[in-house]
Automatic annotation (TrEMBL):
Gene Ontology terms for molecular function: tRNA-uracil-4 sulfurtransferase activity
Name of the protein described by the UniProt record: Probable tRNA sulfurtransferase
Described function: Catalyzes the ATP-dependent transfer of a sulfur to tRNA to produce 4-thiouridine in position 8 of tRNAs, which functions as a near-UV photosensor. Also catalyzes the transfer of sulfur to the sulfur carrier protein ThiS, forming ThiS-thiocarboxylate. This is a step in the synthesis of thiazole, in the thiamine biosynthesis pathway. The sulfur is donated as persulfide by IscS.
Catalytic reaction equation(s): [ThiI sulfur-carrier protein]-S-sulfanyl-L-cysteine + a uridine in tRNA + 2 reduced [2Fe-2S]-[ferredoxin] + ATP + H(+) = [ThiI sulfur-carrier protein]-L-cysteine + a 4-thiouridine in tRNA + 2 oxidized [2Fe-2S]-[ferredoxin] + AMP + diphosphate; [ThiS sulfur-carrier protein]-C-terminal Gly-Gly-AMP + S-sulfanyl-L-cysteinyl-[cysteine desulfurase] + AH2 = [ThiS sulfur-carrier protein]-C-terminal-Gly-aminoethanethioate + L-cysteinyl-[cysteine desulfurase] + A + AMP + 2 H(+)
Length: 395
């Protein structure tokens, strides 16, 4: 029955981004989400985005459309050739089908006359189609204009008709790419994949950096990151991961600095490296999965200490006020949770101090860092990095 989809793209949220840019990007991203499928056509017409499709791919297309940021909602619809009588008959058939499937008790018709050569106004047309349905259906329902079970939309145009009544919720957000690019600090934990999803949802492409301590952490740990990135690339258009070995830096810190500062000093290096990589890859921000007070390094003082090394880009922390339970719920929704809980060594646990400093004094941190050649350590970690591209499509 359905052969087309009418897409609604949250007009309210596009303030600040110009509309043609938003729509062009959204169309591109929808096509990308359908990669590998055949028998569909995505296009813009009358200020809206449509997808026409052949029956076999309908379910898969709608399933994938639900993961595309920028799609607020959509209606599966029936597109026919032009002609008012055909519009009425299609509306009647659709009405009968929906009642049978849903057991609806009330209905309402809203017609839109876009073919201006027709004599009726849109409200007249709505009444006319409503009357036609009531006199021709075996199931004449009551009309309810305020809160109908079936709200039947009939758009009568010069070239075709579109009939629909059902509405599916999309994920909302903004099309990935309209707001530039973020450098995401992606660990193998539960939080940073959720943060990645949230940043991508605001229209950013994702570039990621992952820190490991190979050979203390295994090749399997890197593969876990790739699996997470693969899952996230369903929403983000592929992810390029910079795999950075932090071991030489951690070794240096453990030899020359007080043990309780290990975590905080490592994190400051992570941020310095991430910022450098961001600037190199045209990312205009960093993003992390940090949340206040979740672990020793995420006290407000800890965050201050990690944040203060970043000079030129904002650091976004979309989970800053989330409880762990809320983050876990989100991770389950986007299907990263099961991958995140696979036990693998993390670079941070390799040198975990017995008593990490929870309220590090900036002066102590600066004194400790005087023993380190920060610039050389950062430069050589970046130099030695490996780049892996996950889920990127070449067109
Ligand atoms: P997550 O579940 O994201 O690992 P966490 O609760 O384990 O978070 P931390 O390990 O303190 O918290 O990390 C806080 C944030 O720092 C992470 O969300 C991530 O953005 C970044 N981060 C931590 N470890 C790494 C790593 N090995 N590589 C890249 N980023 C990291
Ligand atoms: Mg972690």
């Amino acid at each position: 029955m359905y052969n087309s989809i009418v897409i609604r793209n949250g007009e309210v949220s596009i303030k600040g981004i110009n509309r043609p840019v938003f729509e062009k990007r959204l169309i591109k991203n929808i096509r990308r989400a359908f990669h590998g499928l055949e028998g569909y056509n995505v296009y813009k017409g009358d200020g809206r985005i449509y997808v026409d499709f052949e029956e076999e791919v309908g379910d898969e297309i709608m399933r994938r459309l639900k993961n595309v940021f920028g799609v607020m909602s959509f209606s599966p619809s029936i597109k026919t050739e032009s002609g008012y009588q055909l519009a009425k008959d299609t509306a009647l058939a659709h009405y009968n089908e929906v009642i049978e499937r849903t057991g609806a008790k009330t209905f309402k018709v809203t017609a839109r006359r876009e073919d201006k050569s027709l004599p009726m106004t849109s409200p007249e047309m709505s009444r006319d189609i409503g009357a036609y349905i009531l006199s021709h259906s075996k199931n004449p329902l009551k009309v309810d204009v305020k809160n109908p079970d079936i709200h039947l939309f009939v758009e009568v145009r010069e070239k075709n008709n579109i009939i629909y009544s059902e509405k599916e919720q999309g994920v909302g957000g903004l099309p990935v790419g309209v707001n530039g690019r973020a450098m995401m600090l992606l660990s193998g934990g539960i939080d940073s994949p959720v943060a990645t999803y949230m940043i991508a949802k605001r229209g950013l492409w994702i570039e990621a950096v992952h820190f490991h301590s190979f050979p203390f952490t295994s090749e399997k740990a890197k593969e876990k990151i790739e699996r997470l990135a693969k899952q996230l690339s369903l929403y983000t258009e592929g992810i390029r991961i910079h795999m950075v070995n932090l071991l030489p830096i951690q070794t240096e810190i453990s030899e020359s600095c007080p043990q309780e500062l290990m975590t905080i000093l490592s994190r400051r290096f992570m941020m310095r490296i991430a910022e450098k990589l961001a600037l190199e890859t045209v990312c205009s921000c960093l993003a992390t999965g940090e949340s206040i007070g979740q672990v020793a390094s995420q006290t407000v003082e800890g965050l201050q200490a990690t944040n203060s090394v970043v000079k030129e880009v904002p650091v976004f922390r979309p989970l800053i006020s989330f409880d762990k339970e809320d983050i876990i719920r989100e991770a389950k929704k986007i299907d990263t949770f099961d991958i995140s809980i696979i036990p693998e060594e993390d670079c941070c646990t390799v040198f975990l101090p017995k008593r990490p400093a929870t309220k590090p004094k900036m002066e102590k941190i600066r004194n400790a860092e005087e023993n380190l050649d920060i610039e050389t350590l950062v430069a050589s970690a970046i130099e030695e990095r490996e780049i892996r591209e996950i889920g990127m499509l070449k067109w």
